[in-house]
Design brief:
It holds the Pfam family ABC_trans_aux. The protein is α/β, with parallel strands linked by helices. The chain is built from five helices and nine strands. It has a single domain, classed as ABC-type transport auxiliary lipoprotein component (Rossmann fold, 3-Layer(aba) Sandwich).
């Protein structure tokens, strides 16, 4: 009798409070650094450059772990799907991995003025969301800046953007598309920075400042 009454009360309370909340899913972004093994194998061929990396920032609306879904210009945070970290951390990890695979970069460190380094990398995430309008796809963007080692003079800056089709609006498909987008951006950023091609890292080490940027 008591158990039956308690169960009846529990069912009544559940009905009053509403249905069971949806199950939360956490999406992992797994990036691929193309040619990483070759880059590390050839690392001793050139003078290494140490890059101190400042933590990336993000626009206020992006600075959250919830997956953002847009239909045009309106972004809505999901109440079911979340990234393992904020977008700036997810994108930053991919970029650090790609840059660290460059044959002429000895290591990538968080920015600490007292640690010996030759250049500073900073940046801000400008897009990290699912877009429904004009075809389901994942959009990611980041603006990167290279500064001299004292972080006082801007050497160069560039914005990177990737749009990857999403097979279906499911957490698995979104995670796959986001992984590809971050991998593409990280690879493009590493190519831009590469000192071996006379990129901005070489200019930062030489103390040059690109005018008009």
């Amino acid at each position: 009798m008591v158990i039956s009454a308690c169960l009846a009360g529990l069912f009544l309370l559940t009905g009053c409070l509403g249905s069971v909340p949806p199950v939360e899913r956490y999406l992992r972004v797994e990036t691929v650094a193309t040619g990483c093994a070759e880059g590390r194998a050839n690392a001793a061929a050139t003078q290494p450059v140490v890059v101190a990396v400042m933590e990336l920032t993000a626009l206020d609306n992006l600075d959250r772990p919830a997956v953002l879904v847009a239909d045009g210009n309106v972004l809505v945070p999901s109440t079911r799907w979340y990234w393992e970290g904020a977008p700036q951390d997810v994108v930053g990890a991919g970029i650090i991995r790609a840059v660290n695979c460059l044959p002429d970069v000895a290591g990538v460190l968080k920015y600490r003025p007292r640690v010996e380094h030759q250049a500073v990398l900073a940046g801000s995430v400008t897009a990290f969301n699912v877009q429904r309008k004009n075809g389901l796809r994942f959009v990611a963007g980041v603006r990167l800046e290279i500064w001299t080692k004292d972080a006082r003079r801007l050497v160069a800056s560039r914005e990177f953007r990737a749009e990857i089709p999403v097979a279906s609006e499911t957490p698995e498909a979104i995670a796959d598309a986001a992984s590809q987008a971050v991998s593409d951006i990280a690879a493009a950023a590493a190519d831009w920075l590469a000192t071996g091609t006379g990129g901005p890292l070489a200019a930062a080490v030489a103390g040059e400042v690109e005018q008009g940027k």
